Amino acid sequence: MHVALQGCLKARNVPYGLTADTGGHIRYLLELVEAAEAAGVQRQEIVTRAFDDEELGPDYRAGREVISERAAIVRIASRSAAYLAKEDLRPELPSLADGLEAYLRKLPALPDVIHAHYADAGWLAARMKERLGIPYVFTAHSLGRVKQQALRMAQADLALRTRIDIEEEAIGRADRIIVSSKDEAVRQYGMYRSTDRTKIDINPPGCDLEAFKGVSGADVPPRLTQAIERFLDDPAKKPILALSRPVRKKNLAGLLRAFGESERLRAEANLLLFAGTRRDIKKETAENREVLEELLYLTDYYDLWGSVALPKDHQPSDVPYIYQYAASRGGAFCNPAFNEPFGLTLLEAAACGLPVVSTHHGGPRDILSICRHGELVDPFSPEAIAEGLSRLLFDEEHWRGCSEAGKRRSSFYGWKRHVQDYLVSVQTLARPVRKAPVQLRPSDGIVLKGQGVGLAASSAQKWGAPSRTGGAPRLGLSNSPNRTR
Description:
There is one protein chain. By secondary structure, the protein is of the alpha/beta class. 38% of the residues lie in helices and 14% in strands. The chain folds into two domains: 2-206 and 415-462, 3-Layer(aba) Sandwich (Rossmann fold); 210-412, Rossmann fold (3-Layer(aba) Sandwich). It is built from 18 helices and 15 strands. Strands 1, 2, 3, 4, 5, 6, 7, 8 and 15 form a nine-stranded mixed beta sheet that branches. The protein has a six-stranded parallel beta sheet with strand order 11-10-9-12-13-14, with helices on both faces. α13 links the parallel β12 and β13. α9 (252-260) crosses α15 (382-393). The N and C termini lie close together (6 Å).
C-alpha cells in the first residue's frame, strides 16, 4: 500500500507543474506501480487526499479511480475539501489518519506493508503502525533540513520546523528507508537525529525512458517548434533548456542570471524555460507567482527579450520532443537546483542525447558518475553555471562525447533492476496474512498484493550491518486472493 498526499495525483495525464507539489514523485509512484504489476504484484492501491477545486478540475474528488485491473487510486476526504499545498496539510492529518484506519479495517485483510511518500504520509503510516501493527517503508523524496540548508535559511520558519519534526518521527519509526543516492543516504539523512543507517536501502529509481529514446529532431511537432520560436529573434542560436516547476529550490532565477551575465551565452545561445504550466500568474500559489514574476523581472533587467522563451504550458506528451528540440540543435539541458534529491530530468535528457549541466548537490553526482553526460557545477555561482554551459555548447567534441555517453549509459536506470531490489526490500518486512480487526474507524491506503521475487541483498548488508535473514533470500509470497501488499 502506498500513501502519497501531495499534488494533483491521478492515473493518466498528470498536469505536472500545475501546482508546486505536482512533481516527479507522482511520476515515480505511477511507474513503480506499473513496474511492480509487471513483476507479478497482484493488487495495488495508492491512497491520496481528496479535494474539490474548480480551477483544478473534477478528477480529485473522493472515490476510487482505476489504474489497471490490479491497481487503483483511493481518495480519502479530510477536514477541508479544498486543495492544499504541502505546507498546509498538517491540520488535515488527524482526520486523514482516521479515514485511512477506517478504510483498512473494512478490508478482508490488512496490507503487509505501507509505503509512505513524503513526511506527511510518513506520519499517517506511523499512526497505522501504532493502531494496526502494519510496518512501513519511507521515501522522503525531499527533506526539510536539506531545503533549509540549500536555501541558506539561518532559521526555519514555522511550516518548515513542523515539517522537520514530522520527518524526524517518520524516519525514526520507519522499518525501511529507501533512498536514491549515496548523497541522500549519508549527507541528507545524516542531518536527522532519528536516522538508523542500518534501515537505509540505496536503490536508484527506475525510469521509463523508452519514449525519450524513440524520437529525433525530425519528430518535433511544428506546433511545439512554433511555441518556442515565437519568443526568439534568432532561433538558430544554441538552445539552453531548463524544465522544472517554478519553485525557489529549482533555482531557475540563478540560471537566468548566469545567462544574463555571460556575454558569450547572450551572443550565441537562447534560453528556453519550461517552468511548469500557468494560466494567470496572479492566481498562482504564492511561491509559484513569486518565482514567475522574478523570471519576468530578470528577463527585463538583463534586456533578454528575444533570447528567452517562457511558454505558458505544455503537455506531458510534449516533454520528449522538448528535449529533442534542444538536442537536435546542439544545445544543453541545465538543472541548477540548490539541491536535487535524485534528478529524473537528467536521465530524460541523457536518453535524448542532450548533454547536461547540473547542480553538484544531491543525486546528480551519482547520475553523472554513471552516465558521464555533462558537467557538475555550484548552483550558487552564476559564473560557474555559465562556464559549465560554455564548455558543453562550444566544444563540439566534448558535446558529442557527452551526447553518446548519455544515450548509452542511461539504460542502467531501468525499472527491472529497481523493482527487483524494491520487492525484496519490501518482502523482508511482510508478515503472515493478518485479517483486519473488526472495529471500525475511518481510513484510506495503497495495497500491493503478489508473488515473491528475490534478488538483491538486504539494506543491512548494503550498509555493512549483519543481515537479519542471513543472506539475500528468495521470498515466496502467497498468491492467495486475500493477501494484500
